[in-house]
Amino acid sequence: MNQQLFESGYAAYQAGDWANAASLLGQAKDAGELSGRVDHLRGNALMQTNRYDEAAQAYAEALSDTSYGNVGALNTNRGRALVACGRLDEAVEALNAATQDASYRTPYKAYMAMGGAYRAMGDTRSAGIAFRNAAIDESNPDPSVSLRKLGGCFMELGRPADAVESYRTALDFSSSAQAQNAIYCDLALAYVATNRMSEAVDAFDHAVADGTYTLSAEAQASYDAARNAVAARAGERRTSDTDDFLAAAGYGQYPVDPLDPTGETSGNLMPSPEDTGFFSISEEEIVNDDRKGRRRGGKVVIVLLVILLLLGAAGGVAYYMGFGWPMQESVVQGMFESRTKGDSLDRYISGSLGDNERKQIEALVPKNAKVSISGVDRSTSNSEVRVTATLAEGGERSYTIKLVRDGIGWKVSSLEPAFVSTDNAALSSSSSSASSSSASSSSASSSSSSAQPAEEAPAQEEAPAGDEAASTEGEVPQG
């Protein structure tokens, strides 16, 4: 090895001159020479310059030097580099290898990167398991980050009650006010999904209390809906325009008194069915009664008009709120049933789509699948339905199905698979496991701040400095 080039490269590394460090360290080795330390540092420098393919190769070369060790750190870094360049299957393999290194002191880093890889693959269940393992790792200084991501997986899986427990536990471990605000917002959305509106309002209030956190449009809409629901339950909702219209027409002004059901005392007399006075009345009384009858007939017409107006208004409100005939759920169920029967799906798919788009939707709909609908988001012209299909060959497949208004009904405009699972049992107790096991590491998290998720901004494990560059054993400053 060219020691002078190595020392120059290492000096550039310490100074944060990543491009120069990567170049000099790459020239320091002789042809065919193995040097885990040099390749480790070179991989770190390449990661800093976003040259992820080259970084992954550098870490692989470092792993070839079996005398160097640091298998867990190298595999974690290689997994992060592979995630960044989209080689997800290789990334999961490398990160699994990192967790098998018994000498690796911080396996939670590998689990966090693994969760990001699985999410990018669309495997939400496996991502949740990885984030749970990161949360219960005693070396994890801030389990709140892992727990928040676990909560996000539960929400994607349609399990908001479990998400609530994950977010509540994350709050116990979070010491950053900014991170807590974000977690409170996530917790509030989970409460809304479980129809616990009072708790949702309280969580939203916490999220925006100090004025530093801004709710997204979706979160603000959920906040407003939760507050309206709480107000309605407390009787604070003002009367509607329909109530005012009926009151102006005189409808409902004379309620039946249970102590005077015939109205004799109040004067709102209700004739008795036993009254036969009709047969003994005079001609003049008949004429007067006829006039009264016409007036009553006029009132009946008014009432009928009011009813028709109410029905029209109700239909308009239902249309505006996203209801129709057939409903979104019926369209989705019918599409899957027609696929099983081998019938055409044309009547369920929007006519605005091209042939290729229609064929793609038809290809994604499985045959002989039992369908359950986990959620529906309605609006006037667009809706979204979340579906879980139990496949005939075993396992489950989730879809997000978008629909567009078609007259008073709905038609499918797109169908996207969300994730594939063959066994959901392993994640059934994730939240409780994270809560109980994370408690043992609370002392380690008391002084930490919110960490940047590894899969979003790949970071590196540091290579030991060595006697050539440092007077004491330790890790190279990350820079």
Averaged pLDDT: 77
Helix-strand pattern, N to C?
HHHHHHHHHHHHHHHHHEEEEHH
State the end-to-end CA separation: 25 Å
What summary fits the major beta sheet?
Answer: 4 strands, antiparallel
Radius of gyration: 34 Å
Number of helical regions = 19
Shape: elongated
Note poorly predicted spans: 273-281, 419-459, 462-479
Strand order of the largest sheet: 1-2-3-4
Question: How much helical structure, as a percent, in the residues?
Answer: 40-55%
Oligomerization category of the chains in this entry = single chain
Structural class: alpha+beta
List strands and helices in order, with pairings:
Elements: H1 3-14, H2 18-28, H3 36-48, H4 52-64, H5 71-84, H6 88-99, H7 107-121, H8 124-135, H9 143-156, H10 160-173, H11 177-193, H12 197-208, H13 217-233, H14 241-248, H15 283-320, H16 328-341, H17 355-364, E1 370-377, E2 382-390, E3 396-406, E4 409-421, H18 430-438, H19 442-445
Antiparallel strand pairs: 1-2, 2-3, 3-4
Helix pairs in contact: 1-2, 2-3, 3-4, 4-5, 5-6, 5-7, 6-7, 7-8, 8-9, 8-18, 9-10, 9-18, 10-11, 10-18, 11-12, 11-13, 12-13
Pick out its properties:
479 residues, alpha+beta, 4-stranded antiparallel β-sheet, 4 strands, elongated, disordered C terminus
Q: Could you characterize what this model shows?
A:
A four-stranded antiparallel sheet has the order 1-2-3-4. The model is unreliable at 273-281, 419-459 and 462-479 (pLDDT under 50). The chain contains 19 helices and four strands. By secondary structure, the chain is α+β, with helices and mostly antiparallel strands. The protein has helices at residues 3-14, 18-28, 36-48, 52-64, 71-84, 88-99, 107-121, 124-135, 143-156, 160-173, 177-193, 197-208, 217-233, 241-248, 283-320, 328-341, 355-364, 430-438, 442-445; strands at residues 370-377, 382-390, 396-406, 409-421.
